[in-house]
Design goal:
Layout: E1 3-9, H1 15-24, E2 29-31, H2 32-39, H3 47-54, H4 67-74, H5 78-105, E3 110-114, E4 129-134, H6 138-149, H7 153-161, H8 166-171, E5 175-178, H9 182-200
Helix pairs in contact: 2-5, 6-7
């Protein structure tokens, strides 16, 4: 039976960095954010309903989703954020379920699935275990988000506040990686992978 491990954490805590490290080591990692991008690309399955609920100005010049404009809208309005999640999460779950089923049928024994909002929604597939990526210094998270998404301090704080607190996610997780500095997280990841390999033996 295939072991499914969810990778989650707060925004800008380094989930994708950990996912990249795992891929480099040869592990299979699915990415819900990539699925989301595919669903909102030109011709994507989610676009018609997003346009219906939020307006045609949410579409960019290439006929895909204007992510910056939609993000600015929903992260200032919890009701609109929930509307968007109700559109996206079932479709993401459907796509991930299909990918996981194919991997299981191929004989894959272990797969990681990067799902940022794993604890915030009931729409995603249940994971067997959860690997949480966090930071000890909240300022690190804030600065990373501002730099990565070109946000003001206020905008970044709003996006962080829209998610479940890191401490609650940590308490619900099987493994926790503290990703403030790269040299420390590598050692932590090695230790976690050793435990996972032992559980599969």
């Amino acid at each position: 039976m295939m072991l499914k491990i969810g990778i989650t954490g707060g925004i800008a805590t380094g989930k994708s960095t950990i996912a990249h490290k795992l891929r480099t080591l040869g592990y299979v990692v699915l990415d819900s954010d990539q699925v989301s991008h595919d669903l909102t690309a030109p011709g994507g399955q989610a676009l018609p309903e997003i346009v219906r609920q939020f307006g045609f100005d949410m579409v960019d010049e290439q006929h895909g989703l204007n992510r910056a404009k939609l993000g600015a809208l929903v992260f200032n309005d919890q009701t609109k954020l929930e509307q968007l999640n109700q559109i996206m999460h079932p479709l993401i779950n459907q796509a991930l379920t299909k990918q996981l089923s194919a991997l299981d049928q191929s004989g894959q024994r272990l797969v990681f699935v990067e799902i940022p909002l794993l604890f915030e929604t009931d729409n995603f597939i249940k994971m067997d275990q959860v690997l949480m990526v966090t930071v000890e210094n909240k300022q690190t998270q804030l600065e990373r988000l501002m730099k990565r998404n070109h946000l003001s301090k206020t905008e970044a704080e709003q996006r962080i506040a829209a998610q479940m607190p890191l401490e609650i996610k940590e308490a619900c997780s099987d493994y926790v990686l503290t990703n403030d500095k790269d040299e420390y997280v590598n050692e932590q990841l090695d230790h976690v992978l050793m435990k996972i390999r032992d559980s599969l033996a």
